[in-house]
Design brief:
Length: 415
């Protein structure tokens, strides 16, 4: 788990701002769910055979004997909130978004942290494929607004409870005949989660999968029609997508559409998927609600930040103060806070270094900050109720009344 220092905070804030703007435009409402949830929410929601539930959850037992988990993802918690708060009684669709920290016990490496932030968007109560396309569009736009180029959307359909069981059988019988050629993880997956063999990164498994049956050839009529329409919507908005028959995602709740977005360069590939998601029409029911179609995705804030830095994407510079306040002596210092407050109320940015008492070091600081004016309040001025304005561009100084300082600076800054 890592600290988010000032150098990265500005990227986080930029990403948050872009997400918030797009959420407002597409009418998503913000939701925050607790960091801790009942462990069962995730084992039921994400699936016992997934890596997340099997290996990556931070679990704890409370004094009262409850089993809780630091949330590894946001979809199951948002579904719980949807059910618990009776959102199905409101006019549908319900569109929610979130931005917060998530926790997975991973091997820390580039793009993989044990605490990481996600921005997520979820839509409930709408089965039309237009929603699948809109979710892809939202994330594509988030990344585009952040000036990330060469984006590629990988997309697939993994069917539903009508067609997937049959496809799984086909897949198991195909891989069973070639079990010896699979890695040890995939041998286990063959029993527990055969679909995941398709996205194994091991060279030898990728060779075996090349001839494996593909889900797209075995979709039922409804899933086939749905997927065709999703792709038509994406064509209509000229979204650059790539059909990836091996994309299955690491969470069990998906039905029909699944997708991930990558940046198409060596750095982008190293960082991994910037965002991922899909449709999950059964999850609301599995978690105790009424059967409700749903679709969503989330993006990794650290990964997006890493890529923006790698690609040297500039953020707009913060507005810097043009005025520096220097004080000398105890009486001047006593008057300082009040003077700063007067500037704040007029919304004029002013900076100081109260910790330094020598004029030379304070002027040095002002020089470094490249402020246009320095206000100097010495012992004499403090007694007389005056203050010196020094123009740093030409070194000219003028003494004015202390209570005119704000007005005078305002006037000069306007010029
Ligand atoms: P996910 O693919 O597990 O999906 O995570 C989404 C994104 O979070 C990834 O594409 C990646 O950018 C980022 N991410 C995941 N794990 C880490 C990590 N350990 N360190 C840094 N970044 C990471 C989900 O979580 C689903 N809940 C998405 C979703 C929402 N599906 C439907 N609605």
């Amino acid at each position: 788990m890592h600290d988010i220092l000032a150098v990265n905070q500005k990227y986080f804030q930029k990403i948050f701002g872009v997400c918030e703007n797009l959420a407002n435009f597409y009418q998503f409402e913000r939701i925050d769910t607790p960091i801790l949830e009942d462990s069962e929410l995730f084992s039921k929601g994400i699936g016992l055979a997934t890596d997340i539930v099997g290996k990556q959850m931070f679990n704890l037992k409370t004094r009262g004997g409850d089993y809780l988990t630091l949330r590894p993802e946001g979809t199951a918690p948002v579904v719980r909130a949807y059910v618990e708060n009776g959102m199905f009684n409101l006019p549908q669709p319900i569109k929610l978004w979130y931005f917060g920290p998530f926790f997975r016990y991973e091997h820390p490496q580039a793009g993989r942290y044990r605490q990481f932030w996600q921005a997520g968007f979820e839509v409930f109560g709408e089965e039309s494929p237009v929603v699948d396309a809109q979710i892809v569009q939202v994330f594509y736009n988030v990344l585009k607004e952040l000036k990330i180029k060469n984006l590629i959307v990988e997309i697939n359909s993994i069917g539903d409870s009508q067609c997937r069981p049959y496809y799984k059988k086909l897949l198991v019988s195909y891989f069973k005949g070639r079990e010896g050629a699979l890695c040890s993880d995939c041998k286990r997956r063959l029993k527990e989660n055969p679909l995941r063999i398709l996205d194994c990164k091991e060279e030898k498994c990728q060779q075996v999968r090349a001839q494996a049956p593909q889900m797209l050839d075995h979709l039922c009529e409804e899933c086939r029609k749905h997927f065709k329409e999703v792709l038509e919507f994406l064509d209509e908005i000229e979204m650059p997508y790539h059909l990836n028959p091996y994309l299955v995602r690491g969470l069990d709740y998906y039905t029909k559409t699944v997708f991930e977005i990558f940046e198409d360069s060596d750095e982008g590939k190293k960082i991994g998927a910037l965002a991922g998601g899909g449709r999950y029409d059964n999850l609301v029911k599995v978690l105790g609600g009424k059967s409700t179609p749903a679709c969503g995705a989330s993006g990794g804030v650290e990964r997006i930040t890493a890529l923006m830095k790698e690609k040297k994407i500039k953020l707009s510079e913060p507005v810097l103060p043009k005025v520096f306040f220097a004080q000398l002596g105890s009486l001047a210092k006593r008057k300082s806070l009040k003077l700063l407050e007067d500037f704040r109320q007029e919304r004029i940015l002013i900076t100081e270094s109260f910790g330094r008492d020598s004029l030379k070091s304070q002027l040095g600081r002002a020089n470094k900050l490249e402020t246009k004016y320095v206000l100097i309040l010495g012992q004499k001025e403090a007694l007389e109720g005056s203050i010196i304005i020094r123009d740093m561009t030409n070194g000219k100084q003028e003494t004015i009344k202390l209570d005119k300082a704000v007005r005078e600076i305002k006037k000069r800054l306007k010029k």
